[in-house]
Structures are given as structure tokens and as C-alpha cells.
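Researcher: Quick one. three chains, 800 residues in total.
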Amino acid sequence: MKFVDEYRDARAADRLSHAIRRITRHPWSIMEVCGGQTHTIVKSGLEDRLPPEITLIHGPGCPVCVTPMELIDKAIAVAMRPEVIFCSFGDMLRVPGSSRNLLSAKALGADVRILYSPLDALKLARRNPERQVVFFAVGFETTAPANATAVWQAEREGLENFSLLVAHVLVPPAMAAILDSPDRRVNAFLAAGHVCAIMGYREYEPLVERYRVPIVVTGFEPLDLLDGVFMAVAQLEEGRAEVENQYSRVVRRDGNLPAQERIAEVFEVGPREWRGIGAIPSSGLKLRGRYRGFDAEERFPTAEPPAEQPGDCIAGLVLQGIRRPRDCPAFGNRCTPENPLGAPMVSSEGACAAYYLYRGRSENTWTGI
Amino acid sequence: MCLAVPGMIVSIEEEQGLALRRGKIDFAGARREVCLSFTPEASVGDYVLVHVGFAIGVVDEAEAQRIFRSLEEMQIAEELKGLE
Amino acid sequence: MDGNLTCPLPPATEERIQMAHGGGGRLTRQLIDGIFRPAFSNPALDAQHDGALLEINGARLAFTTDSFVVRPLIFPGGNIGDLAVNGTVNDLAMCGARPLYLSAGFILEEGFPFETLRAVVASMRDAAREAGVTLVTGDTKVVDKCKGDGVFINTAGIGVIEFPHSIAPAAVQPGDAVIVSGDLGSHGIAILSVREGLEFEVPIQSDTAPLWQPVEALLRAGIEVHCLRDLTRGGLAAALNEIATARRVSVRIQESAISVEESVKGACEILGLDPLYVANEGRFVAFVPEHDAVRTLAELSRFPLCRRAARIGRVESGSPGLVMVQSSIGGNRVLDLLSGEQLPRIC
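Model:
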């Protein structure tokens, strides 16, 4: 595959790995913000190719993982209504609410469907005028233009049986929150390249100024990540703190303007609860007045869900990179991908699931790596 | 987050009424219809990055070589160092 | 961000069957180990093979069964009918048995069109002929409208073991070469490509095919086959995990040695799937001694079905149950069982 295979090349990876070793003098903790990047890191065994001084911290960049439990409960309540066809991206279905997830709601009879695109939900709505089609609009800035377009189009078509359950979150406020944390361990960020494909990277310039932390906009293939680490380490070792763009084949400084316009037309910024992290001001999106009629929360009012019960899961600390998954007393015993306590164990690239699947499980028995 | 995959545009369809731009994208032989409204500059033969059925950006072919160019430069610099 | 970081502790999950229990992953394993095996435990069942090996009055037989609930019923390259024949034929072949006789049970939904049923039955007849098996007994039941999905088919099969040595997970040895009979993922992707909500076009077809011929060729050539497993639900990852766990060994494979058709790769990329977990219906993995590896590949290459057979790794002692993959960039990861079926992801 063009623009994929060449970025998985073994020889180029060797050279980059060698180059990183050559310039690394000090221990550094680098956070890859995005769950997709975490996925590549664990799937390609990328950490094996880094010098021991470099620690990668898996950031909160998985919208599936940070969707609050109350919203999952709401999604389940909506999905259980007989007139509703509840549509979602596949990875949301395993995320636990307070008593069950969408998959078990499906087992109880809810009509829950996995879709590839929000536009497919529009098709379903047109084909099933007697049903209510609800799309679970999860995602970061990358997914916002797509979900915005679904509503925008539904409004133009007068499609009255379509609505969105909105769980959109924004990345820069979360990065600022991590930098503000007194326990902060992050020396540099690999920013999420696909978020930046939409938003550009102007928003990071004040962060770099204020916190003196290097931010490298980074892609998703193994070579992109090695290159991003190389650029971040070079900045750290040289005492620089700048925004750099590793992912220049896709990302421009101003981002994708038509996509930004579509987001601004349909959504407005508001406060948002992040699962395991807490409330972050101005870190979410909600539908603007003109599109409020497409808000599933208003169309299907549900009873207030119960408050979260504290447990011994340390998901919030893991999501901020303060603790590692295996520091958690529940990791791998009470908390597994079949029976997740915390969100990072749910999504396949949640930090805990990634460790469980690819590394953590066998760390005691496997010494050959 | 945000799985996005590069694919080549094989055809484009403009739908005037809805101001929608759609195209068929080829991902190494697997093809799917994708919304091209956010890449008005893209034409047939271009590679776009596709996320949940939407093209979110055009891949810049020259920039795509940057990483390999800088690796080569690094290699040359090291070889020169070796000669010194 | 407040310092009060909590995470929800959900009450114990309700014990109900979910789709993932049928996905061939860890939940399927838990269901079998938790409910079925304790109830029925006996030596033939506990061998954890694709079928039971039975000795009856001196005859060595293999016996197996499989049910088919595929949706859609008709997909590029096949339909539920040939799948139902090949699935059981292949389970017998994986026991090293020549498939002989099949039974078929049909659970039909009220209102199911005769035309589709005729098409399904015709492809069962053709598949049986190709695989050299005879369908000797059957059953038909009809359920109320909306209580079925058109048609479900169960097949059971009997085969005879004609070669002396035993083919089973227990025979796998550290040092064995791991060989895969072809490229991976075509069946699973062909099915997904026509599923509502995910539709895309792929120029590929399901790989559904009977596997006895290539297996017989290996046995006739005198290759000391230790174990065979077809790579159906859960894909290569599930098969390797099952054998590593049953035999208490580890398996180490190279991702770059595994062949995947370009368009299958493309489809996997857009849906966020890993081809190592995608189902196949005409592929198997063979564990053979190192000294037989080259001959195994040579024998397989004579069959168009196994044109892309490749040696992908080896068995090691220690770390029982562990399957390790070396990625294209030289890093390592554990190839674990998934909970259930892989779900398309955006993340």
C-alpha cells in the first residue's frame, strides 16, 4: 500500500533507531497523545527499538476511553428504546457503563449496529422512516467534521428520525491539563497527526511558549513515530522547545479550513467530563442552537444515572502518564479486557489493554524480549 | 484515536443540490465511496487520507519523501565522518 | 483537573451469552472451559483437537461437528452451503483423517425462499462432490418468522485415519517449523465487504475450499506432521494460541513472512482490523519437524490453493502458551487471544 508500506520498512527503522541512540544523552519521558499512535507502538514493538533512556507515556488520546460512564449509561438507555436503531463505531460497544455495555444491551434486545461512517447512519434513517436512528458521535477533532456533516445534511434533508448522542472531546485542553498537573512527568509531546490534519498546529504554539515543552506533530506509522521521537529528543537534548511538524505529508499549519468551518457551523465548545480525569473546561463539543433538535439527549430524556463509585482502578493516573498500567492493583487480575474496570482496558488501544494484550500479561514469564 | 488511511481517488462526483463532493477511493484494491467535501482541491489520482468515510487531507507526495531524504543525508554525514 | 481520580467499579457482569462468546476468542474459551468441558470431560474431548479421535473395533476414526450461522448467507466466493461442507471436511482433515460421510441439519426460518434454499443445497452437493464425501443423513426443522436468520446449518462428519502417526497438539515439539498454507484473511474480508453498514468493494473472494488433498499429500510424502489446525474464526492468532496453550510451548513468528493479499490488507487498514485475527475457510497451519520443513513447502506448492504457503516461525520451549510476533520493524509483541470478534474501530 502506497504511503503505508514504506513507513514500515525495516532498514529505515534500523537507521532511525540508530540515530535516536546516537543523540540520546539523558532520560526523557515522551507522551504520544493519540491512542492510534499507542496502537502502532505496541503492535510494532516499537519500544524495543528505543534506547533505555526513552520512556513512552501513552496519553489520553482515545475518545472511546475518555467518554464518561454517565454517557455510556445514557447511550444504553436510548438504545434500549424499541423505536431506536442505535449506531456506533465498533470500539464503543465494549466500554462499560455503570452496569453493562452496549454489547450486553444488544444481548438484551437493543438494536445496536456497528457502522463505518456517520453517513451510513443517515442512509439507515432514510431507509427506516418509522424508526429513530441515533448515532453515537464519539471522537476528537478528527471525527468532528464527519459527525457535523451528518447533522448538517440531516437538517438540509429534513430528516426528522436522525439524531446524535454527542461525546466529542478536544485535544489541546487535555494536553494543557496534563501540563498543569503537579505530578507531571511529560518532557515532550508527540501530538496527534490526524487531529492536526483538521486543526493545524497553531493551537500548540502558545502551549510551547507557556510550558517550554517540545511538541512534535507526528504521524501513525512506525517510521513516523520513530522520526517523531528523534525530533523530540533532538529538541530536548539541545534545550529547544518548539512546535515541529513530522507529519508534513498531511498536516499544514492552518489545518483543513473547510472542515474547521463545518465544525464551527454545527458545534460549539463547552465543558466536558473526561472519564478517569474529571471535568476540563472548554474541552468538548455540543450541538449549536440551530441543530439542537438533533441532540439525542434532548430527544430522549433519561433519568439521571448514578454517580461513579470510587474503586481501586487507577485509570485516571494512567491516562495522564503519572502511573503505568502494571502499577494498578487490579491490572490483569480483577481488570481484564473481558471484565474491564477502567476505560483504558476497554479499547484495544487503551493503555491498559495494550499492555495486557501485547506485553504485560507475560512479563513475569517471558524474558526473551 | 482517529484511524485514517491513505487511498487514491479513482472518480469524483459533485452533487450540486447538497454541495456534496463524493468520490470512489482505492485502498490497495479495496474500494469505498468517500465524502470529499473537505478536500475541494483534490483530483483523480491524488491520494487522500480517509477517516470514517471522509477525506480529511491530501497527501503531499514531495513531503512524503522527507523522512527518507533526511535519512539519506544522515547516512552521508556519517560516512563522511567515518572518512575523516 | 481535580486530584480526585476515580474509576468506576461495575457490578459483576450479568451472566448472559453475548456475541463474543461465539467469536473464537477468550470468551469462547471460557465458555467451553467453564460449562462444556467440565460437564462432558473425557479423553477424546480433552485432547482439544478439531475433532475426536476414536478407535472402534480396530478402525481409527475421526468424528467432528460444526454449525454455520453466517450472515449474509451468500457472499463473494461462496455461501453458507459450501461453507458447511468444507468446514466439517476440514476439521476431519486437520485430524489427519480422510473425510468420508457427513450429516446435515437444517434449521429453516418460516418464510425462507425456496430459491435460496435450492442454491444453498446445490452448492453443498457440489462441495461434497469436490471433497469426496457423501451426505448420508440429515434433519430439517422450521422455526417461527424472526426466530432464525433464514437458514442455520449444522454438519457432522466421520473420517478414517489411514496413516499411522498421531496428529494432535500433544505431538508438537519445540523446534518444530510453523507453516501456513496460504495468504490470510480473504474469507473474513469477503464477508465483511457485504455486511450492512460496512460495505466496500474488494476484488477478492472467500477462500472456502476443502483441505484434505494437500494434507493427504503431506502424509503420503512421509512428512512427520505433528499438528494441523484450520484457521477459521479467530484466524491464525487463535489457532496458534490454542496449540501453544494445549501443548504448553511458545510459538514465535515473523509478521513479514505471512502473506496477505493487497486488497485484504487495504480493507483491514480501513476497518482497523489485524489480518492475523481474521477468519479463513481454506487455510491451515502445519507443525512439522525442522528437517521436513522444506519438503512440506515443496509438497504444498503443488496445489493452487497453497500457492502462497510459507514458513512463518517456530516452536520454542518455555513460556507456555505464549505466541510472539516480530513486526516488520523488528520489534516484538505478544499475539494474544481477543475477547471475542474483532470490531471495526475508529481509534
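Chain C touches chain A through 55 residues (CB under 8 Å).
Researcher: Thanks, that's what I needed.
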